[in-house]
Design goal:
The chain has helices spanning about 40-50, 95-100, 140-145, 145-160, 175-185, 200-205, 220-230, 245-250, 275-280, 290-305, 320-330; strands spanning about 5-10, 15-20, 30-40, 65-70, 85, 90, 110, 125-130, 130-135, 165-170, 190-195, 210-215, 235-240, 255-260, 285, 315, 335-340. It is an alpha/beta fold. Strands 3, 4, 5, 8, 9, 16 and 17 form a seven-stranded mixed sheet that branches. The protein is globular, with a radius of gyration of 20 Å. It starts with a strand and ends with a strand.
């Protein structure tokens, strides 16, 4: 095995390059993974475009990935070389009061692959052994690269306090919105409306089971929502965009005692009518990342065939990854989700 590897590196603001680097060596409690597939994450695109202080170059990004175990540290037990695995990139401390409560996703000491330590836009990556999940039968390496974003959707839908999901609205038909839609359906949502300005993404949403789609750039979303719900409003509304306008829409679309889940992180602020929130007993729920249980549930949903990925996930060779990343960053790509494929997967 060569001692070097190819890696796609965020080298400076506005610049990403394919370079040759030394291969990482696993520490005593780590596992070395040969990456098979890695998804280009929307939050990484956003960090690149906005020069976010949360991701500082030089950095290897890439947190949505699957691969094969090629080496294990001396203290690692129960993980075999050649095992096909998916990796949970969120690494909590395990000791704080939130971790002890099971809320590892909001651990104040958490680290994230692709932010605090090297990610998987590289042929090899070394990860903590506790982050490894072996793939079950029925789940291949390509679809396993969708486990991480799906876990976000699983978490968002799991923490909805409203047990009634007759009418559900999804704002944004990107990766997270489409996955939230499919998870909501698997949880019993009867009728789903999707708001999305892109005609292509609206078509994808319809093919995946949306009962109605709305062109939010041309149509009156509130009039469409009122007609869709027979004037009752939505039991649950997911904002998968994260702009001030979409957060406000998510609340305004609700039926009394409904729940708005804010999962998008595009902008910092939001302006809402607090009087409406109080007098209608709206619930506004933030959703960040996922717990181990959510991650396992995402694996199960993919393995059991509840999540459709055909028709909206584009496979691109890793050698073309820089071009694919920059195309997505330009905002002019028609692709919904890009997954980079490595040689020798």
């Amino acid at each position: 095995m060569s001692n070097t590897m190819r890696a796609m590196i965020y080298t400076a603001p506005g610049n990403i390059e394919l370079l040759e680097l030394p291969q990482p060596r696993p520490e005593c409690d780590e596992v070395l993974i040969r990456v098979a597939y890695v998804g280009i994450c929307g939050s990484e695109i956003e960090a690149f475009v906005s020069n976010s202080p949360r991701r500082r170059p030089p950095l290897i990004m890439g947190r949505e990935f699957s691969g094969t175990v090629v080496a294990v540290g001396e203290r690692v037990a129960g993980i075999n070389v050649d095992a096909k695995v998916v990796i949970n990139p969120l690494i909590p401390c395990g000791d704080c009061h939130l971790c002890r409560m099971g809320r590892t996703n909001v651990c104040p000491n958490r680290q994230l692959l692709s932010m605090h330590r090297p990610g998987a836009y590289a042929e090899y990556v070394s990860v903590p052994a506790r982050a490894i999940y072996e793939l079950p039968s029925g789940l291949d390496l390509k679809r396993a690269a969708l486990v991480e974003p799906l876990a976000n959707a699983v978490h968002a839908m799991r923490i909805v306090s409203n047990p009634v999901m007759h009418n559900v609205a999804i704002i944004g038909a990107g990766t997270i919105g489409l996955l939230c839609m499919q998870v909501a359906r698997s949880m019993g949502a009867a009728r789903i409306l999707v708001s999305e300005p892109s005609a292509h993404r609206r078509e994808v949403a319809r093919k995946l089971g949306a009962n109605q789609t709305v062109d939010s750039s041309r149509e009156d979303l509130f009039a469409a929502g009122a007609t869709f719900t027979y004037g009752c409003g939505f039991d649950v509304c997911i904002d998968a965009v994260g702009r001030a306008t979409t957060r406000k829409q998510a609340v305004q679309l609700l039926a009394p005692v409904g729940t708005a889940v804010w999962i998008g992180l595009h902008e910092r602020d939001a302006e809402i009518n607090a009087m409406d929130v109080v007098t209608n007993e709206f619930r506004i729920q933030g959703s960040y990342a996922y717990t181990d249980a959510d991650f396992r549930k995402a694996i199960q949903l993919l393995a059991d065939g509840y999540i459709v990925t055909d028709g909206w996930v584009t496979e691109v060779p890793f050698t073309d990854g820089v071009e694919a990343f920059l195309e997505l960053a330009s905002g002019e790509s028609g692709r919904v989700k890009v997954v980079l494929q490595f040689d020798g997967k």
